[in-house]
Specification:
Helix content is 29%, strand content 16%. The protein has 371 residues and is α/β, with parallel strands linked by helices. A seven-stranded mixed sheet has the order 3-2-1-4-5-7-6, sandwiched between helices. It has a three-stranded antiparallel sheet with strand order 12-11-13, with no helix packed on it. A two-stranded antiparallel sheet has the order 8-9. The radius of gyration is 23 Å and the shape is elongated. The chain starts with 7 loop residues before the first helix and ends with a helix.
Amino acid sequence: MEQQHLTYKEMTDFGCFYTPQKFIDKLIDMIKLNINDYDKYIYLDSSCGYGAFLKSLYPYKTIGCDIDKKAIEIAKKIYPNSEYYVLNTLNNFTRKSIHLEENDKLIIIGNPPYNDTTSKVKNDIKKASPCVIDNDIKTRDLGISFLLSYNKLKPDYVAVLHPLSYMIKKANFELLNPFYNNYRLIDHCIINSQEFNMTSRTKGFPIIIALYKRCSNGLKYSDVLDMNFKTIDNKTFNLRHDYIRNYISKYPSRYKRYKNGDILFFTMRDINALNRSRTFIEDFTDNSIIIEKEKFAYYCYVDIFKDYINQLPYYYGNCDVFINNAEFTVIKDIFITRSIEKHPWLKQKISYKTDNRYELIDKYFQKLFNV
């Protein structure tokens, strides 16, 4: 059921994107495939919205919580067979809050809100903190806080949707160490964020439908780097690439001071952010990277990589720009020539050897992207 009562700003603040039924069904299929006694568990959705996950789990015991009183009222009408609580489950929330015992067999299920307050996307209408959050789970992203809150409840399994960036971006993974230290991924598939209404139509990002099992050895970041991810349409991909971060700075340095004549580049985050942002810039700002001239070719590489982003599938959207450095080094003068052609004012700042065999760039990216 589509969200009906929140404004667009409220949806953005709380990260509310209601889940298509086909993805709910996929997650429940994973549970039934991997957990033999799945009918013996209590199912909790601590951000249940209209209760779609709970309704799909009939006739098992289900509990729904949400900070949104109106959503709970609607959920009770749609699916009255569940227990419901109007609660902020990120603040002083325990098993006792919903009358569960510590030894009750529990599976947490759902699609928790995600809202990165540091992201440039929609930051003009976001609140810095949309609700009160316990200090030990408070982060820049609601979804990360929800995963940390699950760990405190110690469920046997966690079956949820969340951005793949929570797992593949090392900074996010480290924020989630308390969760990943105790939970291991046992089944998954990757879907496109564009399948959700009111999300970006221009470029999707990967969301993982994930089934985690509580265990002592948990998940390590090295496991993620070695993992073969599978999409819902049976494609596979991995993170075994060489990345541009190994060669250049992606963020401004606090130690460098701008001088007239410096070449500037806009801050980089991931591939989707590059698709939205600028590359070479003329005016110095807080987001300016001051380029070391011996690394100029690598920034040209990023500049030209941006022109080929639309050839990449959505599931690479949260990855860093990748590179085959050995092959790039051979043709780097072509990248420099093409980049300066795009930004003619760079001619005054750098000397270069002209090489306009641009068809070699096309061939390079065809091979890199496996197109």
